[in-house]
Each structure stands twice: as structure tokens, then as C-alpha cells.
Amino acid sequence: MPTPSSGRPASEDADAVGWLGAMRTRLDSLGAGAGADRRSEVAALVAHLETAYEELRVADEEARAQHDHITRLVERENLLRWQQERMLAVLPVPVVTTDPDGIVRAVNAAAAGLLARRVSRLVGEPLLALLSADDRPDLRHFLDEGAEHDRTLRRVVTLEHRDLPAETVELQVTVFPGAGEINWLVLGGHGQEPSRSEHAAHRMAPALVQLINLPGHVGSSSDALRAAVRTCADALGGGCAVSLVVGAPVAPEAVATSDETASACDGAQLAAGEGPCQAAYEVGEVVVCEDLAHDERWPGFAARAPEGVQAVVSAPTDLGGRRTGALNVYLPVAGPTATYVEGVVLLAAAIGSALHEIGLRGELERLSGDMQRALDSRATIDQAKGIVMAARRCTPDEAFAHLTDLASTRHVKLRELAAQIVAGAARPDTVG
User: Cα separation of 43 and 24, whole Å?
Assistant: First the structure.
């Protein structure tokens, strides 16, 4: 089945395997069926072809393994991009993404509606052209300062529509240098009273954009977890404590907490083997404990929870329907509002996408390292061949055949044997 971006259909892999198999069969038949008068000639040909066959087989195995790995990464990257675009699209908060010069790259539906333009008409246009002439100089200066560091600008500006009256709005402009892009959020303006979900999204908008762009300006997964927890705690406010669990709560792969209260609550749930975090992860939906003292669902957790925690909101993090962990918010007051709960759900959704991309980037870096090591091992094998050729006064094919025989006899990989020979080149007995 062809893959969308690998450029190498699976049929080619099958052809390569079939060709190598056919070559192996022909080699066997040549060795077995030659007459006495041509046996020496055939033996030399067989040895030469066997060397070529072995080199091709090793190279093909490595190439197919790398190809399969890259294909999986591309599929996961496409899934991530789809989820990020979906999240921005459904946010009622107007969000515009531009390059460092202010040229529009992406627009969500809310922004297109506010600007009274079709998305296709906005992409590629300078965003500053939609602002009043009085507002442009400050924003142009902000852009001209460059995008080497995280920066945020908040201004009340006037949007000027071609066919609509001017509208005053509050604009937040955030630079994410690692991502090479700028996010523009409209946080307020004149109009109808927002719905409950719109109010939650507006309140969470800066935090959501920070989380979605987290992979562009953190160095590692641990840094990302800590940054995500701080962002959520700041966005939710109210003296809450926040924890982020990666993996199943009963056996987490990683945990980050905002303070000691969050750590104690996580520990209490783990010790009790029950709680809102585990429940949210298992059912795949947000779980709310409005009053811990009177909630009978998790008596073990309630008995171990630290004093001062009266309510809990736990929301699963996921990617494409696959649960990856949970976001937990511990509150000092009972009865979190529905808007507050929706805010926690939005934050958990953004975290799921961000952590996946960070993990994907780490895997791509590891793959790059593996490919470099494969190239290094090929160079080491070539060096070892040269050493064997000099020691045994033989041809490159004979040297490679000698190396494969030694590797088989000593039960080591060819690259490992080559490294040993190169490292011990000064000792004649190393080459066998």
C-alpha cells in the first residue's frame, strides 16, 4: 500500500525481497550444478556474487527499517497537525497565525467571521493592513524587533473592515521564536454577550495558544510538563493546585505538579488506588468531584487527601481518541462552575497535542541519530575491509567475505566486529 509521503511503495519492498531471494536461489544452483571444468570459475563467480548479495541484504534491511519508521512518524505528524488545526478551528476566540513579517498563514473560523473575509482571502495577506493607520506603527515596530525571544504585546486597536464599520478590540500578539510564527488573539470587543463555552474559551485563550505552541520553545519533555502545569495554574487561578500525569495514573510514565498540594493529592490517589484522575483516564471523559468531603465514590482517596482540598476536576489528555494521560486540578473551594470545568477540558486537549509533538520531535531526533550511526557503521566496515585487504593481500570482495565469516563464527554483528578490528588495527592477530 503506498504511503502518502515516503515516495517508496510497499510493492518496491516486496520486489527487493523477491529479487534478493531469487539471487540466493541462483547462487545455490550455480554452486551445486557446475561441471568439473568450470568449477573454479563458477566458485569465483559465486564468491563474488555472495559478497554482493550480503552487502545488498544488509543495506536493504537497514533501508527498509528506516523507511518503515519514517512512515510511522509521518502518519503521527499528520494526525497531530489535524488535531491542532481542529482545536484552533473550533475555538470561538479569533486566532490568526502569521509569519514574523505579519503575513497571514492560518485563520480560524472565528477570526474569519470577525474580519468579514473568507479564509482563502486572508491567507497570504498582511494582517496590519486590516488595522487602523494609527495602530500600525506600534505593531510594525514590535514585529521589526525580531523574533529571537518570547515576547507578548497587548493593545487595544481598531479593526477596519472594507464594508463594515470600524470595531475596537483588545489584541494580544505573542511571538514564539522556535516555531517561527506569531499568534494574534482577539480577546475582547463589542458585540453580544458570549455563551458559556465562548466565555471559557475567551478566558483560556492566551493559555491555549501557549500550550499549542509549547513544542516550539521548550527543550525537553520534562521542561514541557513543567511549563504546561505552570500555564494551567496561572490560567485557572483561584489558588488551585495542578498536576499532569503522562500515561496510566496507576503506573505513570511522568508526572509534573505545580506545588506540594498537587503532589500530595496525586500520592493519595495512587496510594488509595482510586480517585478522579484514574476514573477520568479510564472512562475518557472529564470527572468532577464537587465536594470531596461528601463524595462517596472514592472514600480511600478522600481519607488520604490533604486538608484544604475541597474539589477536584480531572480531564483526560488524548490524541486521536488514544488516551495519553490526565490533567488534575485541586481546588480549595467546593462546587467548580461549569465554565471552570470547560476551561480544564480545553487545557487538557491542548496539552495532549503539545506533548505528542514534543515526543514526536524527540523520536525524529533519535531517528536522525540512528541513521547517522548507520552511516558511521558503514564507514567502519569499509575501514575494516581495508585493514583485512592489507593484512591478507586480498580483494575487497574477499575481505568482506572474510569479515562476514568471522562475524558468523564469533556470533557478533558485522558492524561490531568491524569496530573491534579498526580499534585494534595495530595488532595483526585482530584480523584473524
Answer: 15
Evaluate whether 262 touches 242 at the Cβ level (below 8 Å). yes
What DSSP letter does each residue of 167-224 carry, written as one string? EEEEEEEEEEGGGTEEEEEEEEESSSPP-HHHHHHHHHHHHHHHHHTGGGS-SSHHHH
Same fold, 93-193 and 196-367: yes
Q: Where in 299-351 does DSSP place strands (E)?
A: 311-319, 322-331
237 DSSP assignment: -
pLDDT of residue 7: 42
- For the stretch 157-186, pLDDT in tens is 888 866 667 888 888 787 766 557 787 888
Euclidean distance between CA atoms 401 and 414, whole angstroms: 11
DSSP 286-312: -EEES-GGG--S-HHHHHHSPTT--EE
**Fold assignment, 93-193:** Beta-Lactamase (3.30.450)
Q: Please identify which residue in the block is written with the cell numbers 484544604.
A: 308
Domain ranges of the chain: 1-90, 93-193, 196-367
Q: How confident is the model at residue 27, as a pLDDT? A: 58
So what's the pLDDT on residue 309? 95
- Grid cell 488506588 is found at 273
Which CATH number is associated with domain 196-367?
Answer: 3.30.450.40
What span, in angstroms and rounded, lies between the C-alpha atoms of 382 and 47? 18
Residue (of 129, 137, 191) closest to 161 by Cα position: 129
